[in-house]
Structure formats: C-alpha cells, structure tokens
Specification:
alpha+beta, Beta-Lactamase, 6-stranded antiparallel β-sheet, 5-stranded antiparallel β-sheet, 15 strands, coiled coil
C-alpha cells in the first residue's frame, strides 16, 4: 500500500509539473498575440485610416474653402495618425522580424512626407467655383443598404472626387498631382505591414495548438499508466486481505442476520484482535436478547446485566427500561384521560339546552368515571335583587341534611370560598360532620374531597364538589380541573342561549304591543275625522300622516356602551333628516339632544342606568339634523357577550311628533272659530233694536249649537289624545 500510494504521488507530481510547463508556454505565446501582435495590427489599420481621413478632409477643403477644415486636418494628424504611430513605436521593441521594423520606419517617414505635402497644397489652394456631387446610390460595391468593404468605398470616393474636381474646380489637380501617389504608396506599405503581423499571429496560433496536442498525448499516456499501476497494486492487496476479510465477513454476517455466532473464528494475523472483540460483542448481544425478551413481557424489574451495566449501551438500556416503565404508566394515564374527555364531550354536546339536565349527567359521569362516592354541582345565578349566588343544580349520593338550603352565597363555606378565590381546594382531613356518604349499608365519612371552580375566560360559572373514600391522584385532580373548563364553557353557552331566547321573546312582545298601539291610534283618528266634519281638510292631512307613520315601521339604531353610534336603519336615518349611516357612525348620542339636556345630570344618570343594564323606555324629546324637534316612543336595551359584559345598546322607536302637533292645531282652530263667533255677535249687537230680533234669536241658537258642538268635539279629542298618551306612556 505504501509503494502504491508513493507511486501515485510521484505520478501526480510529474503530471502537475508537465501541466504547469505547458500552460506557461501557451500563456507566453498567447500573451504575445494578445498584447503585441493584435494591438500592432489594430494601430497600423488606425494609422492607415487616419491618413485617409486627412486626405478626404483636405479634398473637402479644396472644394469648399472652409477654413475650419484646416484645423480639423491638424487634429486628425495629432489624435489619429500620431497617436497610432506612438502606440506602434512602443510595441515594435517586441517584434521579432527586422523586416517589419524597417517597414514601419518607412511607413512613418512616408506619413511625415504626406503631412508636409498636405500643408504645401493648403498654401497653394485657389478658390473660384465648381460643383461636385456624390451619391452612394452610384456605388456598385453595396448590397441593399449594406457596405462590406470600407477600403473599396474609400477608393471609390477618392476616384470620384479626383474626377470631378479636376474638371470642375481650380484646386482639382492639386491633390491628384501632389498627394495621390504618396497616399497610394502609404496604403500599400500599411497593408503589407498589416499582412506580415497577421501571418506572425497565425504562426504563433499554430504553435499553441501544436503544444496543446502534445500536452493531451502526454497527459493521456500518464493517466493510462496510472490506471494500469493502480490495478496491479489492487490485485496484490486484494489477494492478501481476502482471507482475513472473509473470516471477518462470516462473523459479521451472522451478527447482521440477527444471530449470535456459536464458535470463535481465527485468522492468525492482526485481524484476530477484531475477532476477539466480535466474540465479546456476541456475548453482550446475547444478554441484550434476553433483556429485550423480559422487557417485551412487561418485566421491567429484571436483573439481567447488559455490558455490565456500563458504557453507553449498558447505561442506555438501563435507562430505556426505566423510561419504558414510565411511558407505560403515562400511556395508561393518557388513555384514561382521553377516554374520559371524549365521553364527557359527548355528554356536553348532547345536553346543551338545559342547565338541570346538563348538571345531572355531568355529576353522575364524574363520580362514576373517577370511582368516587359522592358529588354535587353549583351553578352561578342571580337572586331577586340581581346579586349573584350559587344554586345547587345536581347531587350524587349526598345526605339530604347536607343541602336543606340549595343556595350558597359567595364566601359562604368552602364552596363559596372557592367561588371567590377561583382556586381549587383539596382536603384529606375533613371537618367533623362536614358530609357523610349514605348507602344501603349505612353512613360513612369520605376520606378526601376536591372542590373545583368552573372557570371560562376568567369568569366563574359554577363550582363542582366530589368526595371519595380513597385519595385523588394528581392526574385525577388535573382531569377534574381540565374538564371543569369544558363544563364552564357549556354552562356559558346554555346561559347565552337562554338570554338570547328571552331577548327575542321580549322583542316580539314589544313589537306586538307597538302594533296594537298603532291600531288604536288609527281608530282614534278615524273617530276624530267623523266628529270634526268642519275640519275635513286638516283631518284628511292628519290621517295621511298617521297612515304613513303606520307603514314606516319601527326605527332602529345601535350604540356602544359609551354612547357612540355604531349603525342605524333607513327609517331612523330618514326620520332624523340624514342621508346615509356614515353621517352618524362614530358620533355620540348627544347629537340628538338640546345642549341644556346633554350637559345635565339627568342625561348622565340616563347613561349610567344603561351601563348598569337597566332598560330605558318611554317618550323622548329629540332633535334632527336640521334642528327639528322630534317626539319618539321607544326603548333602549343592552346586549351582553358570553362573559356577561355589555357590548351594545340598541334602541327601537317610532315617531309620535304628529300627535302633539295635531293637538296644538286643533286647539288653535277652536280658538279661531270662537273668536269669529264673538265678532259676529258684536256686529249683531250694533244693529238697532226691533230690526233683527229673529236674526238675533237664530244667531244665539246657532252660537249655542256651535259651542256645544265644539265643546263636544274638544272633549272627544282630549279623551282620545289622553287615551293615546296613556298607551304611549306619556304623563
């Protein structure tokens, strides 16, 4: 194994050295292309383009005479030609070909000659007219909108400029005679230098590919040799280890199949140490087997020693035995608790409509399931004065003398104390004559008693008391307390349902009463219409208003306990002159009141009584959005949540303002008629005696009859209004 690993390490070192050498060689050649040859070609082409650019600009000047083009020519030589020339000058020291260096020097000198010749042409230029026109549509080297050869395009432009300028411009022959030969020679030498640099780059690229191929061949040979060498060493080591490994495999295979070897194997080499430990492990596993059989039978107190009860496995198995013993006990308790909770849940769901039935089945189940001997359950209720007390609703096996009184006040006895403190009481030493358990065999005092408050949402809804001849375990007491929360929730639900039913009945009764009152009002108005024929027009309007009020129904609004408006129906919104409920939401009830009454103690007392849960009903004077006074008959009622807390205040009402307004109108009309009669009487009295005796007699009779009729109508109207006000609760 040492020779094999050493040979592999040596081969790896050789491979790394060869790889690094080849990579370094390739990097040098690649660096020459990227940092020398390629930039040199680029700058030669830039130098060539710069000279062409200056020639084109010169020709433009010769044609147009624009002096700004002179400065542009100088900038081209400085920024394009000279910049490219300087860059090549810094790179030529790395060129390997003297021919290229000489060619560059010639090219540089030729460029200086072209620059000097351009200045000479600029000085000799004359301007007298001429017209030159160029169009790319005449260029034959393009395909559609694409031009592929820029050199060919530049040659075409030069030729066109020369041809047109020589015949159309005084300066036409200056460029052709002085610069055209030099420019052509410059282009030829620049193209030759560019081609030489390109050929050198291609030659270096071929060397790089050749080096890569050699590298692949050498590396492949070394890898193949390494594979063969590894295979030879593997065969040698395999034959040497096979015998010992077979012996170990046989022992381990027996163990892996779940069996214990009966005999001890030997290899006569270093592996004997391992086989000895396997044999020791087999003995310990045999003890584990016997230990598992005992634990599987539920015998958690076995004295079987595993690994001498030492080490991780020995200690773990001992701890496992203890844990299984605890788990078994916990599982029994958990199953007992889950079963009891499930059965108890069925009772709560089945008898959730009546407190009495629920209490009877709950206490019977609790005593039976806990194997206790007696029990009782108390539910919180209100007495005649509205104060809370504890009412006995069910018992199991209690002596009648214990509960002659079925009501317990808060703080009275142990049950009343548990209600106040909201804490369970567990007693194992009971006071003398506290309770006795009665059976057909006689009487006996229980050994322990457990009293638990029934709490839900931090509110006590009752107390349960259970007694037994034995002692309650911790799990039994916890079970009673947990179940107590479920009992409290069920009691709370039943009470809420009962309260809701009562409110519904009250609401229905109040609706019926209001309907009866509306019917009486309608009949009264019909009677008034029959007796007041002379007031037909006014009576007709009053009847229409009463009919509209009858059809409108009740108005409804909701407030928070502090008096803020939550919502209102369309009848209420319309009655008080508002458009939408959004105009009312969030505002206080005092917006319907006069300022004096809103700031009075009487109004504060009104809301204090509502917050205390007292219903407020009667006829109330209120004001609409536009300040109109409105008399309404209604009732304020509170709504409570499951904890008994007031969450909303609701109001049902209807408008009775027209009744009061009509009474005032009738009185005013009566006074007007009486006044008219008095005026007639005065006029008649002014006539001379003897002329209108018969008329006076008739007038007196008419007056008497009219007065009697008005008095009769007034009395009937007052009696009807008095009866209506009495029905509405108006004093």
């Amino acid at each position: 194994m040492i020779i094999g690993y050493s040979s592999m390490a040596l081969l790896i070192v050789i491979v790394v050295l060869i790889t690094l050498s080849q990579i370094a060689n390739i990097m040098v050649m690649g660096n020459d292309i990227l940092e020398n040859k390629q930039p040199s070609r680029m700058y030669v082409d830039a130098m060539k383009s710069g000279v062409r650019h200056s020639n084109v600009t010169l020709q433009n000047y010769l044609l147009s005479g624009n002096d700004a083009l002179k400065k542009e020519i100088d900038e081209i030589w400085e920024k394009e030609v000279q910049s490219a020339n300087d860059s090549i000058d810094s790179l030529k020291i790395y060129w390997n070909s003297p021919e290229n260096i000489i060619l560059f020097e010639k090219l540089s000198r030729l460029g200086n000659r072209i620059k000097a010749k351009q200045k000479e042409v600029l000085n000799n230029a004359q301007f007298g007219g001429g017209n030159i026109s160029l169009s790319l549509y005449n260029y034959m080297g393009s395909e559609g909108d694409t031009i592929y050869d820029k050199n060919d395009l530049q040659s075409w432009i030069d030729e066109e400029l020369n041809n047109q300028s020589s015949s159309n411009n005084p300066n036409g022959n200056l460029y052709a005679e002085n610069l055209k030969p030099l420019s052509d020679e410059f282009d030829e030498k620049a193209q030759l230098l560019y081609s030489n640099l390109e050929e050198e780059s291609m030659a270096i690229g071929e060397k790089i590919f050749s080096a890569r191929d050699r590298f692949v061949i050498v590396e492949s040979s070394i890898v193949i040799f390494s594979i063969i060498l590894c295979f030879l060493f593997y065969r040698l080591a395999r034959n040497q280890f096979k015998g010992s490994i077979d012996a170990l495999q046989s022992e381990v295979k027996i163990l892996s199949e779940g069996n214990i070897p009966e005999t001890k194997a030997n290899t006569n080499d270093e592996f004997d140490i391992i086989l000895e430990e396997i044999h020791t492990l087999s003995g310990n596993l045999s003890n584990v087997k016997n230990f598992a059989l005992e634990v599987g039978k539920g015998s958690f107190d076995s004295d079987i020693s595993v690994f001498n009860n030492q080490g991780d496995i020995g200690n773990s198995l001992a701890e496992m035995r203890d844990s299984l013993k605890n788990v078994s006990e916990e599982a029994r308790i958990r199953n007992w608790t889950n079963k009891g909770s499930a059965e108890f849940g069925d009772i709560l769901r089945k008898f959730n409509n009546n407190i009495g039935e629920l209490s009877d089945h709950v206490i019977t189940f609790m005593v039976s399931y806990l194997k206790a001997n007696q029990g009782s359950i108390f539910i919180v209720d209100e007495d005649e004065n509205g104060e809370e007390d504890l009412q006995l609703t069910a018992t199991y096996a209690y002596d009648r003398k214990k509960f002659l009184e079925k009501t317990i006040q808060p703080g009275q006895g142990l049950v009343g104390q548990v209600y106040l403190e909201k804490q369970s009481i567990y007693m194992k030493e009971l006071p003398e004559n506290y309770i006795t358990i009665t059976s057909g065999l006689g009487k006996a005092t229980p050994k322990s008693i457990f009293i638990v408050p029934l709490i839900a949402n931090d509110t006590v809804y009752g107390v349960i008391e259970i007694g037994t001849f034995t002692e309650f375990t911790d799990n039994e007491r916890k079970f009673i307390e947990d179940v107590g929360e479920n009992i409290a929730s069920s009691v709370q639900s039943v009470k809420i349902n009962e309260r809701t039913n009562r409110l519904l009945e009250d609401s229905q009764q109040m609706t019926e009463e209001m309907r009866a009152q509306e019917e009486e009002m309608r009949q009264n108005m019909e009677e008034l219409q029959a007796t007041q024929e002379e007031m037909e027009r006014s009576q007709k309007e009053n009847t229409e208003r009463l009919n509209a009020m009858e059809k409108s129904g009740l108005a409804y609004i909701e407030f928070t306990p502090s008096g803020d408006i939550l919502t209102a129906d369309e009848t209420f919104i319309s009655l008080f002159g508002y458009n939408t409920v959004d105009e009312l939401k969030g505002k206080h009830h005092r917006i319907f009141l006069s300022d004096d009454y809103a700031n009075s103690k009487e109004y504060q007392s009104f809301w204090d009584n509502l917050k205390a849960g007292q219903i407020q009903s009667g006829v109330f004077e209120r004001y609409g959005k536009n300040g109109r006074k409105i008399n309404i008959k209604g009732s304020y009622t509170v709504l409570r949540n499951q904890n008994g807390e007031i969450t909303k205040i609701i109001k049902f009402a209807f408008d009775v303002s027209e009744v009061y307004e009509r009474l005032e109108v009738l009185v005013q009309e009566k006074e007007t008629l009486l006044k008219q009669l008095s005026e007639i009487e005065v006029k008649i009295e002014g006539v001379e005696p003897g002329q209108l005796n018969e008329l006076k007699i008739y007038q007196k009779q008419l007056k008497k009859s009219l007065v009697e009729k008005l008095q009769q109508n007034e009395a009937e109207l007052k009696n009807a209004l008095k009866k209506q006000k009495g029905d509405l609760g108006i004093s």
